[in-house]
């Protein structure tokens, strides 16, 4: 049976984009998602300096409809693995507010799902090839329902970033993010390290010591929690970005499965094919869009909506993201997600 994906084009004769979003939400809203359901609305707030993230007015439509059904929505994301303007909860919320995601504009609070420094998570059992369990931000894991709003764009590790990436990478705590990206412990850039000892004070596993006035990480003791990365005032502790693109995509898909577990019947996805850029919104600057705006899609199946999105992007016969990242086969994330039961690629596109 094909998964239903609803689509509304960006160009219209008399209907505005907000009305179109409302129509999509009404079509796809789960019957069981309603009164009293604490609903995580997963979105990317954009790194400071970036403006290609989803317009807060679009997110407000999902929040408004959720509240009309008696649900209790909150806007959420998890802290970043790298050190930036979203690597701790205070900075993350401040960035969200700067970008227009406020209670006044959306009627909903912003709650970062994985604690002050990405340390608050729940192990969700999935029993798959790479993980027996995955570490999902606690407030997302504990929520009754999940609404996923995704800016569809290119990505330097996965070819494209859609709903699967938004929940697979975006719902994982910092330790989960690190395990997807790397097979090795973080390392210390000796030139940047001042030997201040902050990382040592914050390491719960006594894996860091000073050697010749420079911090050194013992990989045998390191748990991979990545706390040292975010607390280092000099940005001297770095990640081994050594995972292959194909394995990274599969690890990401397994985390996506963990993010939706227990929320079956109470989740849906929207992909915004607007301002389609070649890279993620994690960059603190803007990249030129790669094509004209297309529209907005909605589905209860994250695999189907990503498949439909990539087909619309490539409807002219070009594989646009493969042109940008020729070494990355983006089909892997779709195929593996279907293999592990996250969703199906076969879809029916319904234009409204």
Uncertain stretches of 5 or more adjacent residues: none
**What fraction, in percent, of the residue positions are helical?**
25-40%
CATH architecture of the largest domain: 3-Layer(aba) Sandwich
Biggest sheet architecture: 7 strands, mixed
Q: Characterize the overall form.
A: globular
Radius of gyration: 20 Å
Could you tell me the number of beta strands?
Answer: 15
- How many helix segments? 13
Query: Can you tell me the CATH class of the largest domain?
Result: Alpha Beta
CA(first)-CA(last) distance: 21 Å
CATH topology of the largest domain: Rossmann fold
- Global mean pLDDT: 94
Total discrete domains: 2
Structural class by SSE content: alpha/beta
Beta-strand content bin: 15-25%
Q: Strand order across the biggest sheet? A: 3-2-6-13-14-1-15
Helix and strand element order: EHEHEHHEEHEEEHHEHEEHEHEEHHHE
Task: Please tell me about this protein's structure.
By secondary structure, the chain is α/β, with parallel strands linked by helices. It folds into two domains: 3-179 and 243-351, 3-Layer(aba) Sandwich (Rossmann fold); 184-238, 2-Layer Sandwich (Alpha-Beta Plaits). 31% of the residues lie in helices and 20% in strands. The chain contains 13 helices and 15 strands. It has helices at 17-28, 56-68, 89-98, 103-106, 138-142, 163-168, 174-181, 198-202, 227-231, 245-260, 302-313, 320-324, 331-339, and strands at residues 3-9, 38-42, 72-76, 121-125, 133-137, 145-151, 153-155, 159-161, 187-188, 208-211, 214-217, 237-238, 267-273, 295-299, 347-351. The strands form five sheets. The chain has a seven-stranded mixed β-sheet, sandwiched between helices. Helix 1 crosses helix 2 (56-68), helix 7 runs antiparallel to helix 10 (245-260) and helix 10 (245-260) crosses helix 13 (331-339). It is globular, with a radius of gyration of 20 Å. The two termini are 21 Å apart.
